[in-house]
Amino acid sequence: MEFEAVIGLEVHAQLLTRSKIFCSCSTEFGAAPNSHVCPVCLGMPGTLPVLNKRVVEFAIRLALATNARINPVSVFARKNYFYPDLPKGYQISQYELPLAEGGFIEIEVSGEKKKIGLVRIHMEEDAGKLIHDETRPVSYVDFNRTGVPLLEIVSEPDIRTPEEAVAYLKKLRSILRYLEICDGNMEEGSLRCDANISVRPKGSNTFGTKVELKNMNSFKHVQKALEYEIKRQIALILDGKEVVQETRLFDVSRGVTQPMRGKEEAHDYRYFPDPDLVPVEIESGWVEEIRKTLPELPDVKKKRFIEEYNLPAYDAEIITSSRKLAEFFETCCKLLPKPKLISNWIMTELLRELNREGKEVTETRLTPELFTELLTLLEEGTISSTTAKKVFLEVYQTGRRPKEIVEEKGLKQESDEEALLAICQKILEEHPKEVEKYRKGKKNVIGFFVGQVMRETRGKANPKLVNQLLTKLLEG
Ligand code: ADP
Ligand code: MG
Ligand code: ZN
């Protein structure tokens, strides 16, 4: 029997507002514990929450970017539960009437486009943070995060594979970043994902019992946890057992999921409209004003890059995943109209360094001017591509001009035909057996000779010219 997975994601995005959602405390990350708190976010009796308008604006931005329907009236509700990081004993969230419903996020996996539906987008407050002492039976609580604004984005169970789940998350993160409403940093917890997953026989149109997975703070963990869970659930069913509805934690070090608690039901939370907050009424005029401020979004940019620069879809997807990288690419193309060359170098040399350091291109010393100067030297044949890669690293690290580095270190490619001809002759004389092979028809031996000449010239020879010279000598 063949099975398929059914996956729905619940994502929490921490918003980049300066102050918290219901008070004026700072949202700044990394401050001394309990220094960004006030009676409101500490849940003191007699205090009242006041909604931060910027949070609603950010939520509307995301709703517009995902084609969701914005409810003209939405309502904050209390979600009641006890936990030491929740001073009020309830979290202010939205329940029956969320800010927005419907909409979708488009993903592309192995060349196939697919729309993943959204159930809802709602606003809520974050809880505090517990810090457990490793050496003593003591826990500390930091309320700085209490009341930091979150958007919860709930997908329809439209996702079928771990790859699709990761593609959805990456696209959502990219949209949040384009909109400049969330920094999308999964390791630091500003983007958090819970995955709901069940399996069913392929072709069935009913859903199996779902399990909720928590504690996945990177794309890799999401992928691994889902892969493990699919195998675990299929094995249970084939064994004649039942999947239990529960919440499971992903154990990163062992690569397995483990039960955390029985899944709570909505009624366990005793939701009710928060009497301290009036319903949120959104005027359509305001929505239209916000719509005008939206940037070109990743999908539209990607399509334009394919048409305007003739980039393969794969390149366009990667380059437009970051707005800053896309801007860098476009500026480079203005300076040097060779889009595919620029794209190749971005996707290999540049992205390797950026990913290694976890940086955006704007946070480095590299500029479009330096990058295109280097690629121009390569294009003109002044330096070889091996040299260009070395020079790139130095430019990237120091911000020095490629021309200067090439000049200073004498890295110009050898294009002196006479000098190269002599070296080619020498190499052929040294390898009579290979010459014999070539003459008997093994034409690809030429690669070996080119390699030898490159070695002899320490990578400075112009490979195209070497190839021509060798062919002339061998054929002549
Ligand atoms: P709950 O009330 O248990 O949190 P919801 O209906 O709110 O459940 O759905 C939460 C998430 O689980 C959504 O992303 C939804 O798409 C997903 N989901 C719902 N049913 C299933 C299922 N049978 N298998 C996998 N995911 C599911
Ligand atoms: Mg839920
Ligand atoms: Zn406060």
Describe it for me?
Helix content is 40%, strand content 20%. With 476 residues, the chain is an alpha+beta fold. The chain has three domains: 3-286, no CATH class; 296-408, no CATH class; 417-475, Orthogonal Bundle (Arc Repressor Mutant, subunit A). Strands 1, 2, 6, 7, 8, 11, 12, 13, 14 and 15 form a ten-stranded mixed β-sheet that branches. It has a three-stranded antiparallel β-sheet with strand order 5-4-16, with no helix packed on it. Strands 3-17 form a two-stranded antiparallel sheet. A hairpin with a 4-residue loop joins strand 14 and strand 15. The longest helix has 20 residues, at 219-238. The radius of gyration is 29 Å and the shape is elongated. The N and C termini lie far apart (66 Å). The mean pLDDT is 94. Bound molecules: adenosine-5'-diphosphate, magnesium ion and zinc ion (ZN).
Describe the secondary structure blueprint for this structure.
Blueprint lengths: L2 E12 L38 H13 L3 E2 L2 E2 L1 E5 L9 E5 L5 E2 L2 E6 L2 E14 L3 E4 L6 E4 L6 E7 L6 H17 L12 E11 L9 E6 L2 H20 L7 E6 L4 E7 L9 E2 L6 E2 L2 H9 L5 H12 L3 H8 L2 H13 L3 H19 L10 H12 L5 H14 L3 H8 L7 H14 L1 H8 L5 H12 L6 H13 L1
Parallel strand pairs: 13-14
Antiparallel strand pairs: 1-11, 1-12, 2-6, 3-17, 4-5, 4-16, 6-8, 7-8, 8-11, 9-10, 12-13, 14-15
Helix pairs in contact: 2-3, 5-6, 7-9, 9-10, 12-14, 12-15, 14-15
The protein binds adenosine-5'-diphosphate, magnesium ion and zinc ion.
